[in-house]
């Protein structure tokens, strides 16, 4: 437990920023928890969550707008959730910029749909600013208020920490072996097949079984 908390305390700033840039609520709550522990200031954690969320959403929005033919964007467009996000964008338009963060599973397709919509970049910037500010304040505060409960969860994890480490280590080894087998077994079988083929091609004349005798009439 103490190792986990030590890592969170040490790299908390980077974790909160990167986490809110790429994902969301959990990392903003971690920021509030760090503020509860006194490792970082509450204002700094809200600021990091705000900047991470604002920049992350803006990056996806701009990428979808200017690189709509990119295969990554097209892959999201073909997913079923994109159709739902597009309907919400068409119906609520600008308001969707603010509420999109709170709809589980729709953040990424929602941002891509916004990038492909007719909303202007200045309007998106203003609404994204408001949405990121509200979102960061809410979830960082949740992490701060429920900091004691989160600490209790870490205390309960201490009892199974060593077992979890061994289990995760075993899974990592099995996963490594599986990936290695998937990567290199086709090459090994192919090499065996090519060797056998060359051996057959290099043989001249009919094959004879050992111990067989020919009789002349």
TrEMBL record:
A Pfam family reported for this protein in Swiss-Prot or TrEMBL: VTT_dom
Source species, domain of life: Bacteria
Keywords for this protein: Membrane, Transmembrane, Transmembrane helix
GO cellular component, one term: plasma membrane
Transmembrane residue ranges: 12-36, 42-67, 134-157, 163-181
Keyword Transmembrane tagged: yes
InterPro entries (UniProt xref): DedA_domain, VTT_dom
Domain called VTT: residue spans: 24-144
Protein name: DedA family protein
């Amino acid at each position: 437990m103490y190792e986990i908390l030590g890592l969170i305390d040490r790299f908390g700033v980077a974790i909160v920023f990167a986490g809110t840039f790429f994902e969301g609520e959990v990392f903003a709550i971690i920021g509030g928890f760090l503020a509860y522990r006194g490792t970082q200031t509450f204002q700094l954690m809200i600021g990091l969550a705000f900047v991470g969320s604002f920049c992350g959403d803006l990056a996806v929005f701009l990428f979808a707008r200017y690189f709509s033919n990119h295969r990554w964007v097209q892959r999201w467009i073909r997913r079923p959730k994109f159709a739902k996000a597009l309907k919400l964008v068409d119906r609520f338009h600008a308001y969707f910029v603010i509420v999109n963060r709170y709809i589980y599973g729709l953040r990424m397709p929602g941002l891509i749909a916004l990038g492909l919509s007719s909303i202007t970049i200045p309007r998106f910037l203003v609404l994204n600013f408001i949405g990121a500010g509200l979102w960061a304040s809410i979830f960082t505060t949740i992490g701060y208020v429920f900091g004691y409960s989160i600490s209790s969860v870490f205390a309960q994890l201490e009892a199974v920490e060593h077992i979890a480490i061994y289990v995760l280590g075993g899974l990592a080894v099995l996963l490594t072996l599986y990936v290695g087998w998937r990567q290199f077994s086709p090459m090994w079988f192919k090499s065996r097949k090519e060797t056998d083929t060359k051996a057959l091609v290099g043989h001249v004349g009919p094959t004879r079984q050992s111990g067989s005798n020919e009789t002349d009439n």
